[in-house]
Amino acid sequence: MSDRICRAAALIAAAALGGCSLAPTYRPPVVAAPAAFKEAGPWLPAAPADAARPEPWWTLFGDPTLDGLERQLADANPTIAGAVGRYDAARAYLARARADLFPSVSIGSQLTRNRQSDNRPLRGSNQPDLYAADTASGAAGYELDLWGRVRNSVAAGRAEAEASADDIAAVRLSLAGELASDYIALRGADQQIALLNNTVDDYAQADALTQRRFRGGIASGVDAGRSGAQLDEARAQLSDVMAGRALIEHAIASLVGVPASSFTIAPATTSLAMPAIPAGLPSTLLERRPDVAAAERRMMAANAKIGVARAAFFPSISLGGQGGFQSTALAGLVSAPNLFWSVGPSAVLSLFGGGRRRAQVALARADWDQTTAAYRGNVLRAFQDVEDSLSQLHLIGDEAEAEQQAEIQAAQVETLSLNRYVKGAVTYLDVVTAQTTALRIHRAVIDLTTRRLQASVRLARAVGGGWRVGEAA
To answer: In CATH, what number is assigned to the domain containing residue 228?
Structure first.
């Protein structure tokens, strides 16, 4: 009899260790990758890789203030703190799923004083109305994971936890890019303010000259009105840019976790360095995009959950036992006559559930379809982001070169027109036209430089957090 029990136990253990999994074979969808970026060098298709902690790509702009703000963002931003909290929750769910891989063991005790009813059914003359029941016991149970329910639950939990970690990286990357873009806009506003301050001074001198000429009968009232209107317009533009700078500074304060009322950034007109863009971007850069990695891991979780849903069609088999000591008196409780125990397997199979199990499988498959579509969308959006950023860098760069040439010529025309006006060769309308054109082009050059730097930020985000100089295909 004991040999048969041993053989049965061995067979059950072997079945538990070699239990099957009802999850489908994981096959991520194939997204057709282009042979090369349309705006840059060749594209090398590869499998998604882990999204590591983003490199400090913002240091390529060569601004210590931006570096300090980025560090402050990582430590104090509430959105990042929320993402970390979601990751901790995912880790806790994984730990709870892993607990089912191990036996459950419990111990307990109970000391009670009881009284039976005088009118109880089947009352016997030898049954006391008052009695004590003291128990000290323990129990153990273990579910045989024959169908892979527990293992697939753990696999799904692990994938979800890894996706949450990728979400943290994605949030950090997005917020770091937003901060860098806002900071670049702030410095662009500082340059605009410096330009307009100088312009207001120049226009004020020109207006004073025109007013003197008007009082001397050399200039007309039209010229005096034009010079005054031009000066007031420059002052209005200055106020508008200063108002915009204040809003940008407030946005940066919220990003770094500081109240806007107590946060300031000193103005500076130093130009940021334009990062050196590699001639070609290898596929390993795009592999580091954390949103793509998170989307793939959620597909893995959805695939494992199909196995969990399928396992509900099969019986749940558990091994369990309990034992302990029970007596009507606490004294001598732990003794051989008071021993009790029970041990043996149990099985539960649901025969009818009104379609509940089929609905759970259908729900799991629908979740797989959703995560698959989300993954494809993330990959396609990644290609688009890189192409958009590269095209903006190239086209804005060409536009900036043309504007810089126009800036040189406009400055020459402005100087010549003012000199000719002083000598009486032209009217003040020519001066106003030249000065207005020069100011517009000066501001356009600053704006294009700002937009080009921001396009570099978008490219850094598109490739998952920056690149290394010389890292080309």
So the answer is: 1.20.1600.10
* pLDDT at site 55: 58
**How high is the pLDDT of residue 37?**
65
| DSSP state letter for 364 | H
Q: Looking at residue 54, what is its pLDDT?
A: 44
Note whether 229 and 245 are same-domain residues: yes
Residue 24 belongs to some domain of the structure: yes
pTM: 0.81
Q: Which amino acid is at 377?
A: G
For the chain, list residues with pLDDT below 70.
Answer: 1-19, 32-55, 124-125, 277-287, 466-473
What is the CATH classification number for the domain harbouring 111? 2.20.200.10
pLDDT value at residue 126? 74
| Range of the structural domain that residue 327 is part of | 104-144+315-348
pLDDT at 20: 77
Dmax over CA atoms of the chain, in Å, equals 136
At a CB cut-off of 8 Å and minimum separation 6, what does 420 contact? 426, 430
Q: CA 449, CA 456: separation in Å to the nearest integer?
A: 11
Q: Between the CA of residue 189 and those of 58, 137, 242, what are the distances in Å?
A: 19, 76, 7
Q: Based on the structure, what is the number of domains in the chain?
A: 2
Q: Which residue has the tokens 């226009």?
A: 203
Contact 345, 318 (CB under 8 A): yes
Burial class (CB in 10 A: 0-12, 13-18, 19+), 28: middle
Helix (H/G/I), strand (E/B), else coil: 109: strand
Q: Are residues 290 and 411 in the same domain?
A: yes
Asked if residue 470 belongs to a domain, the reply is no
Which of 174, 196, 184, 176 has the alpha carbon at shortest distance from 248? Answer: 184
| Residue 367, phi then psi, degrees to nearest 5 | -65, -40
The DSSP secondary structure of 368-397, one letter per residue, reads: HHHHHHHHHHHHHHHHHHHHHHHHHHHHHH
C-beta separation of 155 from 304 below 8 A: yes
467 assigned to some structural domain? no
Please indicate, yes or no, whether residues 85 and 194 belong to a single structural domain of this protein.
yes
Q: Any idea of the CA torsion for 350, 352, 358, 361, to the nearest 10 degrees?
A: -20
Structure tokens at 167: 């979400």
What is the spatial distance between Cα 380 and Cα 261, in angstroms, rounded to a whole number? 41
Angle at 316 between CA 12 and CA 140, to 5 degrees: 70
Encoded amino acid at 422, one letter: V
Task: Of 162, 116, 466, 433, give the one whose Cα is nearest residue 296.
Answer: 162
